[in-house]
Design goal:
35 strands; nine-stranded mixed β-sheet; about 20% helix; about 625 residues; Immunoglobulin-like; Rossmann fold; 5 domains; five-stranded mixed β-sheet; alpha+beta
């Protein structure tokens, strides 16, 4: 027995108020005197009362207020569910990448559908079911219903995605299933025991593990190398416990560059070298051998063309200009880099100006510089910049947050030097944040694409050879990643599945998905459309005659291992605790609101009858 909202017990103060009223009335008794002795003084009677005499009306009023208080507070009892009396079931499905794996002649998601249909068919008539799915987030695919046709359609629409099934998403799905008398979880890997223990307190939890360990190959990484200079490499891994053949093909555009069949030992990883490529372009690696998961059998990479591209580096510090030039040459050896002091820089005339691929400005901003993309590093406070970044001050040092990159941080915590306190525009995506005294979250890296072109910002200072210091490699990684994004081709974007992608667009855009479905979306105020690839493959975005290809690679080939391993987050309840949780999970909440209200009404009716009897016998003044 318990209360759904214990805070409502405050209404129980009405009982104390009732006691005070009765005690007050007993402390001032009424004295009856003759009408002929109006002006004579009569001493008040002295009574010695050792026991407080309380009439039945007091107990009836006490019972009424107590019943109403517990009704408002939500008094309930736990009782075994009654078959055939409309119990609520929650069907929770894992839609992560592992559920797309083939298991014999079918897939794991199809096995989950069959198990769910068996649960529905065995349930008594009148029971209701809800369908909840999770991967990156949790979604209610169908609200509670007893309509079997609607449930079957909802189950048929469940499609696995090439993204991870996050523990936080599973926890959110179980929260959405709260209130169901029974929860059926369908997944290919056992969840963390602590999650099941939390749910077992209020619902009966049943885990259905679908699929068995199966052979799977995956392309772990693809490096195209430098065309005409260095060889490329592709890494393939066998996640099976037995030998597996792998037929590998590499295509550069429409021409095949490499084709080889190899035998991989159990759990072996092989590096296959190819090239050098003769020219740049879009490179795709494919595993042609059938295996369990198809999404990790393809991977894209872009090989840069050996065409020279002009890059301008502006900084008042000569050492910073040299450091940035070295980093840019490491990104692309074909860059033609020009460095200058912003105070002495003179922009060429329009007739002699050559297009700039990238302009890198450190601690300065020159509006006269026009480039296809812009990178601001430690932007100045006084000057305004053309990409909408505002600077509100400077802190002497800042620490990069450990959770800046989400669940899988790409860098560890480190301390930066002088850092600007900036505010980025809405069209830019935040990449990393830092903390400083008085400023718990400062944006330090951001990137965005809009109609005016790509732009990026780094809020920390790179003086004193920060980018080349061994203890600050993470700041170098952020800088290199931003430079690669800024100099990437405009019509080809290579991203991991599950990432948010911004594509420049005008008015409306026509998006073609890998499964050939087409959607039309409207561009936002900054001239872009946002998509989130949940399947691996090619997404085509067409707008105002321009076409952009978004190529989604499988999010993490290391997750292609189909071996079922439970998540060791906390020990499962054992012994008596497990038995108690199982017994409690077989019960459901039964509110007592209507029973308590009925008792309160009954007490009021009895009190009214007693008052009417008193009035008829002794008159109204005795009531």
């Amino acid at each position: 027995m318990g209360l759904l909202n214990p805070h409502n017990i405050i209404y129980g103060l009405s009982l104390a108020l009732l006691v005070l009223i009765y005690l007050r009335s007993r402390s001032r008794p009424t004295i009856e005197v003759s009408s002929l002795m109006l002006f004579d003084e009569a001493p008040a009677p002295v009574a010695s009362v050792r026991h407080v005499r309380i009439d039945p009306l007091f107990w009836l009023e006490m019972a009424t207020l107590a019943a109403l208080t517990f009704a408002i507070a939500g008094l309930y009892v736990m009782r075994p569910p009654s078959p055939g009396h409309g119990r609520l079931h929650a069907l929770v499905f894992d839609l992560g990448a592992g559920m797309s794996a083939r298991d014999g002649s079918t897939t794991r998601i199809e096995l989950a559908r069959r198990a769910a249909l068996a649960v529905i068919n065995q349930a008594p008539v009148g029971d209701e079911f809800s369908v909840i799915a999770y991967a990156l987030e949790a979604q209610v695919r169908h609200p509670p219903t007893a309509n079997l046709a609607g449930l079957r359609r909802s189950l048929a629409d469940l499609v696995p995605m090439a993204v991870p099934a996050r523990t936080a998403a599973l926890r959110a799905a179980l929260i959405r299933a709260h209130g169901a008398s029974e929860i059926d979880l369908f997944a290919d890997r056992p969840p963390a025991p602590i999650l099941l223990a939390d749910v077992a307190a209020t619902s009966r939890m049943k885990f259905h593990q679908v699929g068995a360990d199966d052979a799977n190959l995956a392309i772990v990484s693809l490096d195209p190398g430098i065309p005409g200079s260095t060889r490329g490499r592709v890494v393939i891994r066998n996640f099976s416990a037995r030998p597996h053949a792998a037929e590998l093909a590499l295509d550069l555009g429409d021409s095949e560059q490499f084709h080889q069949t190899m035998m991989l030992a159990p759990r072996e990883q092989v590096i296959a070298a190819f090239g050098p490529l003769k020219t740049g372009g879009l490179l795709q690696a494919r595993i042609l051998t059938p295996d369990a998961i198809a999404a990790d059998n393809s991977r894209y990479a872009y090989a840069p063309f050996d065409l020279p591209a002009r890059v301008l580096v502006l900084s008042p510090d000569a050492a910073v200009r040299d450091d940035l030039a070295r980093v840019l040459l490491a990104v692309n050896a074909n860059f033609q880099i020009e460095t200058a002091d912003p105070a002495k820089y003179v922009a060429p005339s329009a007739a002699n100006a050559q297009p700039l691929e990238l302009a890198v400005m450190h601690d300065c901003y020159l509006p006269a510089v026009k480039a296809a993309s812009t990178l601001l590093i430690y932007p100045p406070q006084a000057a305004k910049n053309g990409i909408g970044i505002s600077v509100d001050g400077t802190v002497a040092s800042a620490d990069i947050r450990d959770d800046a990159a989400g669940e899988s941080p790409a860098f560890e915590s480190l301390t930066l030097g002088a850092t600007r306190i900036i505010a980025i525009p809405e069209w830019m995506d935040l990449l990393a944040t830092a903390a400083a005294p008085g400023h718990p979250s400062i944006p330090i890296a951001a990137f965005g694409r809009a109609a005016a072109g790509p732009a990026g910002v780094l809020a920390f200072d790179v003086r004193n050879h920060l980018l080349l210091a061994p203890d600050h490699l993470d700041s170098l990684v952020m800088t290199v990643d931003l430079m690669k994004q800024l100099t990437a081709p405009r019509d080809v974007l290579i991203v991991p599945t599950g990432a948010d992608v911004s594509v420049p667009a005008t008015a409306t855009a026509r998006i073609t998905y890998p499964d050939a479905t087409v959607h039309t979306v409207t561009a936002d105020n900054w001239g872009r459309v946002r998509i989130r690839p949940m399947q691996a493959g090619c997404y085509t975005v067409e707008s105002a005659g321009a076409t952009t290809q978004v190529l989604a690679n499988y999010y993490d080939a290391a997750e292609s291992d189909l071996v079922s391993k439970p998540q060791a987050e906390a020990p499962a309840p054992v012994g008596r605790a497990a038995a108690r949780a199982s017994d409690q999970s077989a019960r459901q909440v039964q509110p007592l609101v209507f029973v308590l209200i009925a008792l309160a009404l009954l007490a009021l009716m009895v009190e009214s009858a007693m008052l009417i009897g008193h009035a008829g016998r002794w008159g109204m003044r005795h009531v």
